[in-house]
Amino acid sequence: MKKYFMGVDVGTQQTKGILIDQNLRPVTSYAVSHTIENSQPYHYEMDANIWWDEFCQISKELQKSAGIESQEIAGVGVSVMGCDCISVDREVKPIRKAILYGIDARSVDQIRKLDEDFGEEKVLEMFGHKPNSDDISTKILWIKENEPEVFKKTYKFLTGSSYMVAKLTGNYWIDQYLAKGSFRPLYNDDGSFNNEYSSYFCTSDQLAKTGVVTDIAGGVNQKAAEETGLKEGTPVIIGTGDSTAESVASGLLEEDILFAQVGSTLFYIFSTNQKIPSCDLDNFPGSEIFTVPGIYAVMGGTNAAGSLTGWIRDEFYFPERDREKGGGQNAFKIMAEEAAEIPAGSTGLVILPYIHGERSPIHDPKARGVIFGLRGQHDRKSITRASLEAVAYSIGSHLRLFKKHNLIPNKIILAGGGTKNKVWMQIMADVLQSEICIAEDWQTASFGDACMAAVGSGELADFKELADALPHGRIIRPNPDNFEIYQKYLDIYEELYRRNKDLMHALS
Questions:
Q1: Helices (runs of H) and strands (runs of E) counted in the chain
Q2: CA-based R_g, the chain, Å
Q3: Do 494 and 352 contact (CB within 8 A), yes or no?
Q4: Which of 86, 138, 137, 83 is nearest to 110 (CA)?
């Protein structure tokens, strides 16, 4: 009997599922779109029930499309947007909407109070970095202080992948990397619970157990089998966050690789073979143990990537967007073609992409977007190219920070929907002055989930065997003529924030 592996990823804009065969090649895929809620400033939420409903729909559609029986699926992997906070009861029912990852910055008061209660030096020791909007423990504090009834009713505080795995198996597990990277200081370095802070945040009983991402969390239970069409008992791995799953899918399986996921937001992972302490002086987060055994990871995130270009489309290309809905040319394709007509540097235009505040390296939820250098001769083409360059500058700014701490990548891998834009990818290569490897379109987070399910089920021996089986992607080489131009504008990009930070905060 042939074996297939299912992977399902819940992202910011859609949930996507894929079936792969024993050769790790796609058989069929299916996606469902959704939206996030932004009810008030700094608050970003989603109803986690929607994620489960979409998983059930996708699971059935994949099996139907592939024409296979449920018993042919030998393993299931799932990932969800990392750093989400979900409160569930004993029946794994969400008590409130999920508080999303770093774009949700409601916990600024809780972060400030941590410094007051413990002192900045102790807080830095507790978290391993300066607390920010990616830290789930600060979101738990927000619930504890603002929604005490929700806190009281909460059986488990989960992140997205833990929630989905619990729905499938009834068991509560979390990837050790996601736990130690996102739930600090609630877990120790060895993955055990840190009871020292139980009374301040929550109890250890309210948290999931940690394990390696490819460990089997359990089999699909009877209720989940009925709802998903999967065979009862089908192995389900612990799973992880979407960016981690996509990085694994793209080949982030050894040291000295810089990986960036170009989606609605950008998420960065730099792999290293050593534990590196954080440095509060320049917002360097330090390294955490990664999902792949033996690897540590330095992480960062930019809140607006595809969402910035989406805003440009909606505000400057709405006629093209509307015609696209009627069968016309894709508006993003038109944007890319127009951006290609503008030279490097967008004829003196620099954009700060902070339309949703910013995570790393500035960690400032009050940061604002800026279009700087605007002149009468500029048009939407210049603004479009400047928006693409803005996201590339963000990666460039991170790369400067990494190099400052002697982290020099041997390879740069980009993945995600944004990589379909060839003009954007050339800009990335030119700003970084490096070859970049573009993953195949289907090497997405859901593909990574399915691959890790193949490892967990024993079809593949380990991550090394997985690395050998992955495709190599395509290479984009930088244009050396553009490097000096972009370094000058990257300097301006970084200085723009430093000089205008106080004014941005005044607007907030």
A1: 17, 23
A2: 22
A3: no
A4: 138
